[in-house]
Structure formats: structure tokens, C-alpha cells
Write a structure and sequence with these properties.
Blueprint: H1 6-15, H2 31-42, E1 45-46, H3 58-69, H4 85-99, E2 109-113, H5 114-126, E3 132-137, H6 143-149, E4 153-158, E5 160-161, E6 175-176, H7 179-185, E7 190-196, H8 208-220, E8 224-228, E9 254-259, H9 260-263, E10 271-275, H10 278-289, H11 297-312, H12 320-342, E11 346-347, E12 354-358, H13 376-388, E13 390-391, E14 393-394, E15 410-414, H14 419-437
Parallel strand pairs: 1-13, 3-4, 3-7, 7-8, 8-9
Antiparallel strand pairs: 2-10, 5-6, 9-10, 11-12, 12-15, 14-15
Helix pairs in contact: 2-13, 3-11, 4-11, 5-6, 5-10, 12-14
The structure holds 4'-deoxy-4'-aminopyridoxal-5'-phosphate.
Length: 438
């Protein structure tokens, strides 16, 4: 292109400005983009990304069909920006029961595009340039880039594993915060802590004692709590999910985040919510009204009907929130057995869709590359999907850059799958084990 051509000159000049906003620096990589593509290309059995391959319950899909073609054509139009009135009303009724306090559907609840957008609203609305946000490792990976996009500084504190000495399988409860270490992360610079109980990826359900410790520090240092509770109904072995907002001094400083995707096994619907005090939610509404503004009306209507059913059946055996964890516990146990049977030691999760397994005994199959930039578990998971057709996610994806290399012996499996899918995974593992020993 000749510079004497005035048109080409002006085009060249335009291309010289940086296009990328500074807030995106260093956050361009995303585990899901990479591993979802690998699973789509190579996997025979996909236990990677967290979504059920079994159908959503009939009462929910029927509610969607009714909303779609039931004659109320207004359900195809915009609804209230901060949440379709029937949905915020029933969510308020439901959470009144769970939290034991009165809630105003219009100011204490907001509907979001999945829990993802709820998280985004929290960080954008509550975190300022230079604010520190404590994140407990391992963590759902988007917390770190979302804090950074808001100008905040993530401060990491790890759950530390204490293997049981009696030869029993490890449980997610054996991963604990060191109280002194946690306390050392709080300062006047701390704006918020992100809590995720039940936790993705470990499946840890924080105990009342652990939550009490976090709550005490939040109150002492005037820190907010962004409480991601998307797996609130998926708790096993009679364990109880405790809401940190119900602990003393916490309601006024906590935003509870939920997901219809996880609650009703319909992750593609992308309906989520926040519940909290108006003093916090009013600022989340500002982000919402200036970003997505509004979520799909029909999906909100159907989720509202799902919650109305659950409100009626609350605590009864027919309730989906009673049935789903029972089914998932069975699936967890199948996968625990399969993995334990071949020596890929599982860490038995107390909740969620996920379990983390130790790959140490399988390392000889996948050669290490010393001084590589890629953590070993990434290489292992890639090798496994390409060579065995089994997709899982490396655990170090759930750690900060600084701590990734301490946790490269584990991969995460999703067990929210049909029995046939879990059997197919078992077949792959058994065959692999036989090849190793023959
Ligand atoms: N938080 C956690 C801990 C999650 O695991 C997920 C989904 N994997 C989300 C939030 C996002 O939920 P949603 O699909 O409703 O956006």
C-alpha cells in the first residue's frame, strides 16, 4: 500500500491505536473456552463442564411451554427490568422462609442473567479501584477476572488439605481454612470476601464454625460478603447448607447469589438472582439497568412457576429440592466407586455437581515436561480427553497464577450425569487400569 494514497494513509492511521481496554489485560484466557472445545472435539464421555445431561423436571418444562403458548402474549414482551413480578415475589416468599426475615420482593430481590451476571453486578457495583477482595482457593474461576475488571485487587487464601490418617478416602470437609491465615488477609483495604458454599470445584460445604469465623472477620473489618450459593440444594449425607446471611451481623453486608440453572437442572435458561438488603441491591440495580437491563420474560415466568410448586411442597418427599440431591448423591457414589476402584483417589464431596480426584497413580502414562509453562494437570486432562475420550477439568484452573503450581495432581469431574454416562466413564477407567497392569 502506497503512503501517497490518502485513503490507505487514513486507514493505517486508524489501525495504530490500541484497541483493547486496559481492564482486559491478562484476563483473556478462559478455561471453559479451551476445554469445552477439546471435549466437543475428542470426548466420548464428557464429565468436564458442569451441566446435567439428564432432563430438567417435567413441571418446569411444562411451565415453560405454557408460558410460551398459553395465550398470554405479553409474556413475549419486556417485563420489569429488575425481575418479572411473579418471580421476585415467589423468591421473596421462599427466602423469607429460609432466612426467617421479611423481604420486599421489589427491593430485596433482583433477577439476573444466570448467577454469572449476578456476580458481575456485585463486583461492578461494590468494588472500587484499589479495593481488595478476598477469594478462597480453589474458586470458581470467573471471580478473579471479574474483580480485576472492576479495578479491584484479588487477595487469595487457600483451603488447606489435611489428609485423614486412618486410610479413609479424603472428604471435601478435610480442606479447611487456617483461621490465622484467613484473619491475616483482612485489613482496612478489604472491601469484600467471596464465599462459595457449597464450593465449586471441591464440593465443600462450609460448617457453621467456619462460616462463623468468616462472619466475625467481616463484621470486625466492615467487609461485605458476596455469597455464591448456586449449589444450595445440592448437599449430601444429611449435611445442612447454612446461609451466612442468617448469622449475626451478616444480613446487612451479604448478597446471596442463586441460579435456576443449578436449582432446576436447566443451566441453559440462564436465570439467576440476588437476595440481599436494599442498601447493597440498589447499586446492583444501577449496574443491571445500564448493562443487560432485562432478562428473558418467558424463562422467568417458568422459573416462578417452578418455585411456586416448590413452595407448596417445601420439605415434602415430592419436592424437587428433596429429590434432586438424593439422585445426585447416588451418582456421586457411583463415580466415587469407579475412581477409587482404579486408584484415581476421589475427594468425596459434601455437595455440588463435582468431585476432585488425585491423578498421582496415573502420572506415569502422561510424561511431565519439566519447566513447561503449562501446569501438569492441564497436560494430563488434555491427554486424557484425546487418548481416552474422557473429559475432565484440571484443578489448577481454580487457583490463582501464584498458587497454581501447588495443585497440579488433581482433576475435577462433574457427576450430574445420566447413569449410562457414568457407566461409560467407569468402562473407560476400568479398561485404562487393565492396560496399565497388563
Ligand atoms: N457460581 C458457581 C460457583 C458456578 O459453579 C456457576 C456455574 N458453573 C455459576 C456461578 C454461574 O451460574 P449460571 O449458570 O446461573 O450463570
Amino acid at each position: 500500500v502506497k503512503a501517497s494514497n490518502p485513503l490507505s494513509f487514513s486507514l493505517q492511521a486508524k489501525m495504530s491505536k490500541p484497541v483493547q481496554a486496559r481492564r482486559l489485560e491478562g484476563i483473556d484466557k478462559n478455561i471453559w473456552v479451551e476445554f469445552v472445545k477439546l471435549a466437543a472435539t475428542y470426548s466420548k464421555v464428557n464429565l468436564g463442564q458442569g451441566f446435567p445431561d439428564f432432563p430438567a423436571p417435567d413441571f418446569l418444562t411444562e411451565a415453560f411451554t405454557r408460558a410460551l403458548s398459553g395465550g398470554n402474549h405479553m409474556l413475549h414482551q419486556y417485563t420489569r427490568a429488575f425481575g418479572h413480578p411473579p418471580l421476585v415475589k415467589v423468591l421473596a416468599q421462599f427466602f423469607e422462609k429460609l432466612l426467617g426475615r421479611d423481604l420486599d420482593p421489589m427491593t430485596n430481590v433482583m433477577v439476573t442473567v444466570g448467577a454469572y451476571q449476578a456476580l458481575f453486578c456485585c463486583f461492578q457495583a461494590l468494588v472500587d479501584e484499589g479495593d481488595e477482595v478476598i477469594i478462597i482457593e480453589p474458586f470458581f474461576d470467573c471471580y478473579e477476572p471479574m474483580v480485576k475488571m472492576a479495578g479491584g485487587i484479588p487477595v487469595f487464601v487457600p483451603l488447606r488439605p489435611n489428609p485423614p490418617k486412618d486410610g479413609k478416602l479424603m472428604s471435601s470437609a478435610d480442606w479447611q481454612l487456617d483461621p490465622a491465615e484467613l484473619a491475616s488477609k483482612f485489613s482496612e483495604r478489604t472491601k469484600a470476601i467471596v464465599l462459595n458454599s457449597p464450593n465449586n470445584p471441591l464440593g465443600k460445604v462450609f460448617s457453621r464454625r467456619e462460616l462463623g469465623l468468616i462472619a466475625e472477620l467481616c463484621v470486625k473489618h466492615d467487609v461485605l460478603c458476596i455469597s455464591d450459593e448456586v449449589y444450595e440444594w445440592l448437599v449430601y449425607d444429611g449435611k445442612q447448607h447454612i446461609r451466612i446471611a442468617s448469622l449475626q451481623g451478616m444480613w446487612d453486608r451479604t448478597v446471596i447469589i442463586g441460579s435456576a440453572g443449578k436449582t432446576f437442572s436447566a443451566t441453559g435458561w440462564k436465570v439467576g438472582w440476588v437476595v440481599g438488603p436494599n442498601r447493597l441491591l440498589q447499586h446492583l440495580r444501577t449496574v443491571h439497568q445500564n448493562s443487560v437491563y432485562h432478562c428473558a420474560t418467558i424463562a422467568q415466568e417458568a422459573v416462578a412457576q417452578g418455585f411456586q410448586r416448590e413452595l407448596m411442597l417445601y420439605g415434602k418427599p415430592e419436592s424437587y429440592f428433596v429429590q434432586l440431591p438424593k439422585e445426585l448423591q447416588q451418582k456421586r457414589d457411583w463415580l466415587v466407586q469407579s475412581l477409587d476402584g482404579v486408584g484415581m483417589k476421589p475427594i468425596v464431596p459434601e455437595g455440588t455437581y463435582f468431585l476432585v480426584a488425585d491423578i498421582s497413580q496415573f502420572k506415569s502414562d502422561v510424561p511431565d515436561v519439566p519447566n513447561s509453562d503449562e501446569p501438569y494437570d492441564y497436560r494430563f486432562a488434555k491427554w486424557m480427553v484425546k487418548n481416552k475420550g474422557l473429559a475432565a477439568i484440571p484443578l489448577s484452573a481454580f487457583y490463582s497464577e501464584a498458587h497454581k503450581n501447588n495443585y497440579t495432581n488433581f482433576i475435577r469431574f462433574c457427576f450430574a450425569k445420566e447413569e449410562a454416562t457414568l457407566k461409560a466413564a467407569n468402562d473407560i477407567l476400568q479398561k485404562w487400569k487393565q492396560e496399565k497392569t497388563s
